[in-house]
Design a protein that fits this description.
The chain contains 22 helices and no strands. It is mainly α. It has two domains: about 5-190, Terpene synthase, N-terminal domain (Glycosyltransferase, Alpha/alpha barrel), CATH 1.50.10; about 220-510, Farnesyl Diphosphate Synthase. The radius of gyration is 24 Å and the shape is globular. The two termini are about 20 Å apart.
Length: about 525
């Protein structure tokens, strides 16, 4: 028997054992803990139907097992909000004193602190009790992270840096598996399944990366466009960050190729082409016609041809096996057109020496993050799971997408503005904000950090309140915000492939888990 067949057989066996755990779990507390473990260990895509059914039942207040236990109350709250249920915050009132501060007595240890901390990030505007919960638990975790004698020091520090809301799912799975392995209450079936699944998925990712790398090498695009960054591996990581599930293998390959070309596009508009050349290229993209190629300089002819050919290939790939999705490629092309318009607007500012107001800058720069390009193309890769309504939702400029763009733009600008100013780029959000408001750089960075915090709140609110679009769709946009948090947390980890970037590439793609 082939190794892959043996692994698949073992996966099915373990999957059946976990399915039986859902049946054995009698009370809400056991069910919540099981779902939490399954999600943290990266196994939830195997049990979407079971998890959806249980959480739908769990939204009813009458099913609460122990409403005096902050760990269970906070866990239920987080899992339900992650699922898109607008569960009210009043369930936390009993844990506060007359001053509406959380009682010290409710947190007996790391488990309770962490549960409330993770829940508090799923806050919407006006939910003051969650603001207080976040401040309360952050202080506790900071104390834990600074205590050299604490066995949870590293775990606390990591949670402070990447709470579940902001963490890229595939990156934190390996860490959760190692933490779970040390838990004396661990379930060995879940642990074995998680390790087997992680390594199996890693092999799939390696095959996909080999495929897109061959495509990139065969293009030989950088021979003619030597000014551009070579970021095929990082482009694949972006695609993997948007969706890691095996059923979206084609989607990852499509998105990785688009991200790689978008990187070249960015460098062409930013670094190399003249304004007249960029105007011709932008007009050619608007027309989407190979006849436009005659007016372009040689290097642009090559690049333009590559873009149009790739979209033709994508259209063929998604309309195979008696499946027809006629609307998808139209919206994907519109995303590319919008991207080029935003890049051209920024190029004009630069060539004219114009520094826009912060609001004027953000209107264009949230689009130039590429999110309005990546979201529709990621939907294309989901096949029939992405309806026409999903694409129309993107066209309506929803708050979830807008806020993700704000996070991407501001985090990128804060980490890269010094380098880009030295390079002679158009003023970033930092420079535009400083000039308009007469603030110092330090004051401006604080203001922009607050804008990012607000944007995360907008993300959770729109994610929860958008009921006409499935969570499966909304999650792709949320994951883009998570990618920005990953790549631009401390420096521009996409332009400059630093130790952190290399670490998570190695962790996800190269290094298997010991079984």
């Amino acid at each position: 028997m082939e190794e892959e067949e043996m692994v698949e057989e073992e996966v099915q066996k373990l999957k059946e054992e976990v399915m039986s755990m859902f049946i054995i779990a009698q009370n809400p507390s056991q069910k919540l803990s099981l779902i939490d473990s399954i999600q943290r260990l990266g196994l939830s895509y195997h049990f979407e139907k079971e998890i959806t059914e249980i959480l739908h039942h769990m939204q009813k207040p009458s099913v609460v097992d122990n409403d005096e236990n902050i760990y269970e109350v906070a866990l239920r709250f987080r899992l339900l909000r992650q699922q898109g249920y607008a569960i009210p915050t009043e369930i936390f009132n009993k844990f506060t004193n007359e001053d509406e501060d959380f009682k010290e007595s409710i947190v007996k240890g790391k488990r309770e602190i962490m549960s409330l901390y993770e829940a508090s990030h799923w806050r919407m505007k006006g939910e003051i009790i969650l603001d207080r919960a976040l401040a309360f638990t952050t202080t506790k975790l900071e104390e834990m992270a600074m205590d050299v004698s604490s066995p949870f020091r590293d775990e606390a520090a990591y949670a402070l840096k990447w709470p579940i809301l902001k963490a890229l799912p595939r990156l934190i799975i390996k860490r959760h598996i190692s933490i779970y392995e040390m838990d004396p209450l661990k379930n060995n079936v879940l642990l074995k399944f998680a390790k087997l699944d992680y390594n199996s998925m890693q092999k799939l990712y390696q095959k996909e990366l080999c495929e897109v790398s061959r495509w990139w090498k065969h293009l030989n695009l950088l021979e003619e466009l030597s000014f551009a960054r070579d970021r095929m591996v990082e482009s694949y990581i972006w695609a993997l960050g948007v969706y890691y599930e095996p059923k979206y293998s084609l989607g990852r390959i499509i998105l990785a190729k688009i991200v790689a070309l978008a990187t070249v596009l960015d460098d062409m508009y930013d670094l190399y082409a003249t304004l007249d050349e960029l105007q011709l290229f932008t007009q050619a993209i608007e027309r989407w016609d190979m006849n436009c190629i005659v007016k372009l300089p040689k290097y642009m002819k090559i690049f333009y041809g590559v873009i149009l050919k790739l979209y033709e290939e994508i259209e063929k790939d998604i309309n195979k096996d008696n499946v027809t999705i006629p609307y998808a490629i139209h919206y994907a092309k519109e995303g590319m057109k919008r991207q080029c318009r935003a890049y051209f607007a920024e190029a004009k500012w630069f060539h004219e020496g114009y520094v826009p107001t912060f609001e004027e800058y953000m209107k264009v720069a949230t689009v130039s993050t590429c999110y309005y390009l990546f979201v529709p193309i990621s939907f294309v890769g989901m096949g029939v799971a992405a309806s026409k309504e999903a694409f129309e939702w993107v066209e309506s400029d929803p708050m979830l997408l807008k806020a993700s763009g704000i996070i991407g733009r501001l985090m990128n600008d804060v980490t890269s503005h010094t380098f880009e100013q030295e390079r002679g780029d158009v003023g970033s959000a930092v420079e535009c904000h400083m000039k308009q408001h007469g603030l110092s750089e330090e004051e401006t960075l604080v203001e922009l950090e607050n804008e990012v915090i607000k944007a995360w709140r907008d993300i959770t609110e729109d994610y929860i309140k958008t009921t006409n679009i499935s969570n499966e769709i909304l999650l792709r946009v949320l994951n883009l915000a998570r990618l920005s948090d990953l790549f631009y947390k401390e420096e521009d980890g996409y332009t400059f492939v630093d130790k952190t970037t290399k670490h998570f590439i190695a962790s996800i793609i190269v290094e298997p888990l010991p079984t």
